[in-house]
Batch of 4 targets.
Target 1
Amino acid sequence: MSSGTGLRVVVTGATGNVGTSVVRLLSEDPDVGSVLGLARRLPEWSPPKTDWAAVDLASGRSDLAGEFSGADAVVHLAWAFQPTHDPATTWRTNVLGSMRVFEAVAAAGVPALVHASSVGAYSPGPKDHAVDESWPTHGWPDAAYCREKAYLERALDIFERDHPGTRVVRMRPAFLFKRASASEQRRIFGGRFLPGPLVRPELLPFLPDIPGLRMQALHTDDAANAYRLAVRSDVRGAFNLAADPPVDAGLLGEMLGARPVRLPRAAARSAIAAAWGLHLLPASPHLFDAVLRLPLMDCTRARTELGWRPQRTATEVLEEFLQGLQQGAGARTEPLRGRKAG
């Protein structure tokens, strides 16, 4: 149960990949008195100082202002990745639901809002050098994920203008992985029936080396620590979050002992589009287009103003995640249930 002293923090989307890490780190922080986790389905798991409430942001029927009453900070993480074939559904949860959160933060007089933006909010950018938080956030318009993240950046611009007394922090992390998220992310991006045990180096004689496929990764716990630091500090604005080194076919080839083989973008996209069109692959070709165009991020501001540094390299993150895939790893929340296939 919650404690009566210390910071009171409310976390939306508290049972997913990022939410479970944020809730755990906040519950371990001596300056945090209580954590209220909001989720559509209540979990079996409950760390110290943590209470839960069932909330569906898409419904519009929940009393969010009541849930936020008395909070020192709201960490907004709730997000739906699927169904990718029905962007109106994800828009209702991700955009309209987020705007309900913003309105409730203002109505409840919460002093701080920490929002989960993303590298996906950025406009197309360079792959040979990193950009800081001033890079435009117009997203890649064909991809629902990027379109929604970019739209919420504009919504927060208006929120900050209208509510200057609320401290707003926008986290823009790279792709986030941990062992416990492996089964969830396999289902989201690879499909329910992709067998995790087949993700083994010996079954990959070569890796497709696609022009532009160079991105950044970060351990979810390292991202969660940045959220914790933002709750405790007085910082405002956007923060890039990523670990080194950037991930490309060369790095993955070294990790897996597989030979990179150049594959044209058009051929790769056609294969993904065909599988997505047949509902064999949940990840859309539009998201693939976006990944090829995302810039690399400079994380200097997070280091200097938050005092944040990732504890794991991108290579270590991916090694842990791949082991989780092979083992069907998960956790005791509905989104993170561990399953090898099906």
Note: The longest helix spans residues 87-108.
Target 2
Amino acid sequence: MDGDTLYSIGELARRTGLTVKTVRFYSDRGIVAPTDRSLAGYRLYGVDAVARLDFVRTLRELGLDLSTIRKVVDRELSLPEVAAAHAEALAVQIRVLCLRCAVMTAVAERGATPEETELMHRLAQLSEDERRRLVGEFLDAVFGGLDGVPAFAGVMRSMTPELPDNPEAEQVQAWVELAEMSLDPEFRASVRRMAQDQAAEQTRSDMMGPRRDITAAVRDQAGPALAAGIDPASPQAEPFVAAFTAHYAHLLGRPDDVGLRRRLVTRLESVNDPRRERYLQLLAVVNGWPAPESLAPVFDWSVEALRVRTPQ
């Protein structure tokens, strides 16, 4: 290409794929200046204007404003610095859009009311510090005053959701639902009762030496029976029931009688609260953990097996 060649606005538009109106607009803003004028006074542009306009179009498609573009093409600003700042701004916009998308998806799926929608939006917009405070309040409501149980420190850590800096839409939706659950007074009270029961059992266990908690014992004993297809009301279930009731009796230092079995039924029904399992499922999504195994079938089997053997 001849370096002395000059183009009219129309010719420049054809070479760059822009409209005449757009080329004129950029020229009026000083982003691409004419090299000369024709005898009739029309603006003429050198060959460098083609490359300059191609670059300008690229920057516009990437979302930069005209003021910044002009400073970049005039070398008043460093392109890498501008790109870094713009990338950071885009990341923020993307996160905001992902949050909004997650909330609207949840609203659509749940048929949320205006009040529920407002709450979900507020929970999704919480800062990291605000999320930590909300979770901290929930864990304090559940475990507060039970500091004497060393195992609870690990339990609290395992129940703490940590939303990543750039969460997926699914993680945002899970966080919103989990946060709603943690604000529910009834759910807090339910988990608090579980923690108190476990604390009482743990205190007794520590006096006798390390022992598995009752939920682990029931899982280990009833799990094989369930897998084998044994009817909880059948005689074949008796050895499995006897094993975990004996464990519970030893754990509490009480005889394996009707009272203990009734207490164990209540304990297992409490642990088998669907909301507890849902919390753990949501927690796994937020933290990017593998989905937890559902213990509901094992607890259902155990409760039924106990009930048929326990006079009401």
Note: The two ends are 98 Å apart (CA to CA).
Target 3
Amino acid sequence: MATAVTPPPKAPATPGTSQAPARRRRTGVAPRRLPYLLIAPAALLMLGFIAYPVLSVFYYSLQHYNPTKPWRNGFAGFDNFTRIFTDDPHFWGTLTFSLKWVAVEVTLQLLFGLALALIVNQTFVGRALGRALVFSPWAVSGVLTSAIWVLLYNSQTGITRYLADLGVGEYGTSWLSDTGTVFPAVVVADLWRGVPFFAILILADLQSVPKDLYEAAEVDGAGRLRQFFHITLPHLKDAIILSTLLRAVWEFNNVDLLYTLTGGGPAGETTTLPLYIANTSVDAHNFGYASALTTVAFVILLFCSMVYLRLSKFGGESK
């Protein structure tokens, strides 16, 4: 008669053998997720502050929305965009001036900022004071900068009054109300605050250029000009690309300086696309059409930024 074979009892699990790896796997998951859990509240908050306004602009761009005329509000579809490209007499003019403004400002600010960075990078007596003076305009707010230059361009107490005392020009001349001088006047005012931005970024990158490269170049007989084009500029490539891109976006969206100095005048000579958007929304209360203009400006900036980064090969090795 067959007897049942009883399996031998299992040995009790000893600590550190089978259960320990599972425990280590369970406890090892939390440390990996902990950084993401810690930054999740801030990330969600930032996403809300960024995503909600952007989505709101896209939504209102498809609407007729004017709080002063609620009976006309409603879904517009692409009517606002059709009006921009076909029936708006101001869109192309403001866009053209915006591109001109960005090209002139960014180019001049880059050249002057590069020159100032090279100067204050040298060793001389009072270098710390010189750097502080160069960088100080960047610490001034945009509104205060506008107020300073409004006073400087005042026809009764500003620069033109003192020039008239010296026999240059006439009393009562206002550079901001003359179509022939208003553009150079606002360019100079914005240069005063924009040049230090380039000087700061370029000077910071100049500090990291190895001195051995310049010493080796001097041994090989390379002059200052060749050192600048073959050592300094290649090293500053990424800093220049990034600073020009950031400044181009900021200058395209510049509203406070032009609004305070000229209000877009005289005769619309200094009206940029963002200033036109501000006037359309704040003054005319046409928020639907202003949202459509903002959407078009956003697409233009996004496309130009992508093309610029692609053509400049940002982050790539310099040949």
Note: The CA atoms of residues 60 and 66 lie 10 Å apart.
Target 4
Amino acid sequence: MNTPPSPPGTERTDGSSVRIGALAPLTRPGWVDAGRHLLAGLELAVRDVNDVGGIAGRPLELVVRDTGADPQRAAAAVAELARLGVAALAGEYHSVVARAAAARADALGLPFLCSSAVLDALTEQPTEWVARLAPAQSHGWQIYADFLLGAGHNRIAVATEPSVYWASGARILRDYLAPRGGTVIELDMRALDPTAVCDELVGSRATVLLLLVGHPEPAVSIVKSVRRDRRLDEIMIGAPAGQPEFAEWATSLGDDGAAIPFLRYLPEHLSPLGARVETALRERLAEPPSFVAFEGYDTVAVLADVLRSHGVDRARTAESWSRVAVEGTRGQIQFSRTAGIGVWQWAWAPTQVVDRDPAEPDRFRILHAG
């Protein structure tokens, strides 16, 4: 089912379909490629659900809202979707946006299965209404830190911008690396341009620069500056948040975008279901699907299973997270309560550190698995 974003007031309200609200960043300043892949996964799964009879004979329907990476816009969309009578809420990629959506969903009693946001503190307080598929940031970024240490890096510079998400990432790295002999040197991108970053790197004696900044800018400009500075030929650039995952990265940077390790939430080998979904997503997207597309598919697979088993009552859906056992594209999905995380959490999706192969930038190399 290929459902474009629906203008307010145009959704079907005759009760013939079971509707799920879907949030995704589909316009700037949102990460549009991520939103497009997320939506492709959601839509493909809706089509597959409907091909086998929908929800107790009723078709499943997505009601899509573009968040544009704006937390207030997302919160307003959640309230609108709740009024429209959706059975549950799905999606979102940006952590700060998902956090606003989760808070509003919790307040309104609307079940929300978050697809792709990783911020540990997705909600301020524990809630029964929200569950999440993506690994928590602390889990994935500690795996990334293990990769850095294993590769011999213990002086790590991070180029940062103001954001709850980036600040959380820097803190996770600092807290994890310090007891293991690692040092994190923060470079504040409010005060530095890409050329000044290069000068700071030379003086810091760091062997790695991590991009804790937005995409495409200033990430692309920083990479270009570092790659062209002969003083920094030996430095490794990394991007734990996954900027190099999408085709736009390779288009913007060409060969300069290769050999920049990032986190990806895929297994080394896909199951038969995962392989079938990958083929269908590739056709739908006209390019290789990212892990975000698989997250979208798995979100609808879980919600469809819950709605079939427990009906469309919102409270019953929220009560059912602990009983979920769904074969997703990346493994068996079950939710549990995890220390320090206030939502029901799949612990954990497969986690890899990968990069684009310098010899073939469209091919990914697995460097480390957690």
Note: The longest strand covers residues 360-369.
